[in-house]
Amino acid sequence: MKLVIAEKPSVAMALAAVLGADEKKDGYLEGGGYLVSWCVGHLLELAQPEAYGEQYARWRYGDLPILPDEWKYEVPKDKKKQLDLLCRLMKDKRVDSVVCATDAGREGELIFRLVYEKAGCRKPVRRLWISSMEESAIREGIHFMKNQSAYDNLYQAALCRAQADWLIGMNATRLYSLLYGPTLPIGRVMTPTLAMLSEREDAIEHFEPETFYTVKLDLGGGLVGHSDRIHDLSEARAVMEACNRDSAVVEKVEHKEKRENPPLLYDLTTLQRDANRIFGYTAQQTLEYAQSLYEKKLLTYPRTDSRFLTHDMEGKMPELASRVSGTLPFAAGLDLGGHADIVVNDKKVSDHHAIIPTDSMPGQEQALNTLPSGVRDLLTLVSTRLLCSMDDPFVAQETTVTVSC
After folding, report:
1. Is 266 a known active-site residue?
2. For the chain, what is the radius of gyration of the CA atoms?
């Protein structure tokens, strides 16, 4: 029997439905030769400084820096029951192997590995790595599972990130708070981000507007010529008066074709940026909406840094785009470009491909209308970007006329 461990209950339910584990137990499902259970986010967290010595309960300058020789972990009280269950299932004599089915990314890897180590489990582990919760994607992922060792570097990267956060957060926060009085939270990501915002606000506050002038020539036929910026008003008036007494001569006419490729597909960052610009959603709201759509099998895995698809997906993209357009009222009758090749680049796909609607999304118009507004907005945004990304390039004729006067 195989033990499958997901990151969230909703994902575990979807996996269990595919695997045939339909018998509900307390904290897991069973059936079809599988036990399917779940974590609830991080079940183990890095311990506070006082876990390394009672003296660290008080903040003292002389104790810094705090550098653990061996990292300790603690279990949040509200998650102890689920951790104990997973440890018990891993030790179950019926279980001969384990499937890591936590989210396919750095944090998901860390969540599983810490539980596996805590349980003292040494049973073989295979890794389920999927970008969609559709049944076909789950079955394909199960077929192509790799040994856990293939993801050792990902686990080490996750450990490095967590430990770096702890070292900087615990030590720098105590240091700056002791030096300057009030509690000053310092973080590896938070502090440089706040510095960028502060510098930008300072630049805005101290911005000094600069007056400039341009001379315009009415060339007739709706054509207007513009001079370069002139900072001195008297000089601008002199140019204007000189032009009023003279004739304008066309020196050069240039025709140039302007081509602009369609926008790339969304990764998480660009999706968050557009969702904020268009709908006013925060980055966290966008991530939550995207995660909800992923768990509803309507969107592929959202935590991705790629804006391209893999070569094996190219063939199905024109059909997917055509079907997606049928669910968008404004897209009815559009002449779709269908250039799937421009969104495919294996070299620019790391852990996960770009965010796109799943094959399950089209044909669910009634279900889509029942989605919360924020979730529906995000799905519309991703669907629209899919259609845009495969369209023809924008082509325009640009003419530049240089006039001397």
Report:
1. no
2. 29
User: CB within 8 A of 257, min separation 6: which ones?
Assistant: 395, 396, 397, 398
Tokens of 332: 């009815």
Residue 379 is inside which H or E element, if any? Answer: helix 373-389
- Which residues are CB-neighbours of 2 under 8 A, at least 6 positions away? 33, 34, 35, 95, 96, 97, 98, 99
Rounded to whole angstroms, the maximal C-alpha distance in the chain is 100
- The Cα–Cα gap between 355 and 378 comes to 11
How does DSSP assign 314-378, residue by residue? GGGHHHHHHHHHTTSGGGTT------GGGGB-GGG-SSS--B-B-TTSTT-HHHHHTS-HHHHHH
Catalytic position from the list 28, 266, 281, 301 = 301
The model carries a pTM of 0.78
pLDDT tens for each residue of 8-63? 998 999 999 999 999 999 999 999 999 999 999 899 999 999 999 999 999 999 99
Rounded to the nearest 10 degrees, the angle between the axes of helix 283-295 and helix 373-389 is 80
Answer for the pair 95, 1: CB distance below 8 angstroms, yes or no. yes
φ/ψ (deg, to 5) at 35: -115, 125
Q: Are 146 and 130 in contact (CB under 8 A)?
A: no
Q: Is the dihedral of CA 280, 285, 286, 292 positive or negative?
A: negative
CB 153 within 8 Å of CB 127: no
Amino acid symbol at 348: K
The Cα–Cα gap between 101 and 111 comes to: 10
68-118 per-position pLDDT tens digit = 999 999 999 999 999 999 999 999 999 999 999 999 889 999 999 999 999
Q: Are 357 and 386 in contact (CB under 8 A)?
A: yes
Q: Give the amino acid at 171.
A: N
Tokens, residue 239: 């140019």
pLDDT in tens, 334-371: 777 778 899 999 889 877 899 999 988 766 666 677 88
Distances in Å between the Cα of 234 and the Cα atoms of 214, 242, 324, 327, 347 are 12, 12, 60, 61, 58
